[in-house]
Model the fold of this input.
Amino acid sequence: MPRETMTIAQKVESIRILSPDGTVDKKLEPKLPDEDLLGLYKTMLSSRLFDERCFMLQRQGRIGTYGPTKGQEAASLGFAYCINNNDWFVPAFRETAAMLYRGWPMSTIMLWWGGHEIGATPPKGLNDLPICVPVSSQCQLAMGISWAQKLKKTKDVTLVFVGDGGTSEGDFHEAMNFAGVYKLPLVQVIQNNQWAISIPRHAQTASPTIAQKAIAYGFDAFQVDGNDILACIVAGQEAVKKAREGGGPTIIEAITYRLGVHTTADDPKKYRKDEEVKEWEPKDPLIRFKAYLEKKKLLTDAVETKLREEIRLKLDEATAVAEGYRASKTEFFEYVYAEMTPELRKQKAELEEYLAHGAKPSHANELSRV
Amino acid sequence: MPQMTMVQAINLAMKEAMREDPNVVVLGQDVGQDEGVFRVTEGLLKEFGPDRCIDTPLAEAAIAGGTIGMALAGMKPICEMQFDGFSYQSLHQIEGHARRFRNRTRGRLSVPMVMRFPYGGGIRAIEHHSEAPEATYAHWAGLKVVLPSSPRNARALLRAAILDPDPVIYMEPKAIYRAFREEVPEAPETMPIGKARIARAGKDMTIISYAASLRAALEAAETLEDEHRIDAEVIDLLSVSPLDSDTINASVRKTGRAVIVHEAPRHCSVSGEIVARIVEESLLYLEAPIKRVTGFDTAIPFFANELTYIPDAGRVVKAALETARF
Ligand SMILES: Cc1ncc(C[n+]2csc(CCOP(=O)(O)OP(=O)(O)O)c2C)c(N)n1
Ligand SMILES: [Mg+2]
Done:
């Protein structure tokens, strides 16, 4: 047998439609209704301002550690735009823009970062999972959800997110393998923001792209400019359509950048150069989309000012709702099982008796670093 | 003698071992350039280079499995799980391999590794960052499970763990990482793994605890002395596997009363094992039922309410008084 080079049928397509200065590739430009475009911009801006608000709340000790999404708004929102409420949405933890678009109240997301279980409670009417902390574990859940969609013969799809770092976990690999084997209606977005805390993308995998991993799982992938919301939407729509029509899963690697800290407990100066951040700042997805909308005469300074004011009021309201939230100190016993066990009832009573005597738990604290 | 925090003491123990033995390496997520998310590995990359202080990709099973492989091949690796809650991602390697090799090869192969991670609640961290999984690990024969309570014993026990011929799971109570300083001797020292320490001598009752909960136990002992004239002995276990039955039983035989304190949930916990060992060996010495002050049998609440869950001195005092007045 001679040595031969194999041809592998799967492909990776790369897409960019909006360049950093807002110039659009007319041939690739999706035809989206004006009100959708403006709505998307408003969500991106809301997410950005939400970030700023949470930063302030964290600095003032009003919420805990906060993980900003600055610079990655398009790379979550663009894909969330492509699904509807019956579809499932499975976030990691840097999908604030997508969560806002899906209809998560700002106050709920704030409550999650404020250390309340109610913040992990999806709003009624949405097929959404809450923020997922164990990196990549959500990929398995999404795989299972899309499996159920297929077995139940719905026409629904599942959209799931993971970070570049998360693709190193066994969970990611296993989920993608199953998705390929069972041809599941799954769209796996990788927000490749170049860093996993201090570990740069090149130290995470020797693979030149993350998208190409799809080839080994037996399905296609896109690599898109994740700071170009139009590219995210075009790739997302194609992947969702394929999944709905029984064509199986797609990996979409969205190339983006974490402009901010990993979380408020992180000091990026220890591991990355300011120059790198400076290089990425002009590629900010908001700048680009704004320029595009201005050229289309959909956005003016006056509209921008009005939007910002509206969002500021919503943030004030959300902050008040979040800070006004009160839960009983012993309600955590009530959600272990559908019904409390006799032992749990006993433990709850024990704690209630202790608290009733005016006890205030006192502990020495260490500053959070997560 | 220098004063240091637990973070500094753990860091020192790693540096000392790395200086002495080129086979000692440290690996994990963000342990190199970032020096660990809690700065526990500060200075290691600088002093020992990237072959001995290794930043890995984000995969706990690979970190643990790779560590086991290195240990099998004659190295002395120390791997870090970034948080307690993510050590679960490595369990099939630890349970299925690390703890079994000595037994299944009749001692031909062994796994002299250390897996260390920040342990427990109390720092207002998000979900999965405040877990107390010691009972899970203690259940698996072949592993040693160590939980230091102060800078000095943290350094001595980590040294012992690194020198130990078997796999040691070393849990670092993150709530007291920087809560206080303690004098640590210039020269490296070790403490035997599996031996408890009398943290406070007393004669009226025995309070048994470990890790960050020890502080609640000691604070309670002070209150009991000052306000109730009860002289409590406080035992600091330091390791929950092996468990020092002798020290526990000797104390309980003397005092006749026992209260056990830990932040992990109660069901199938270390305190359950301690109660069993007291009952098995010292039942007729008991003057009152044994009390347990622990986390509840729920998930630890999100951080806004975590201090309701973690035992504090008040709960220990209440249980101690019930025991004393029985
Ligand atoms: C299983 C697991 N291991 C470790 C962590 C701690 N941790 C939180 S985020 C993070 C880096 C994630 O990097 P990436 O997947 O690229 O997402 P990004 O933070 O860049 O959005 C790590 C190591 C975790 N949450 N889960
Ligand atoms: Mg990343």
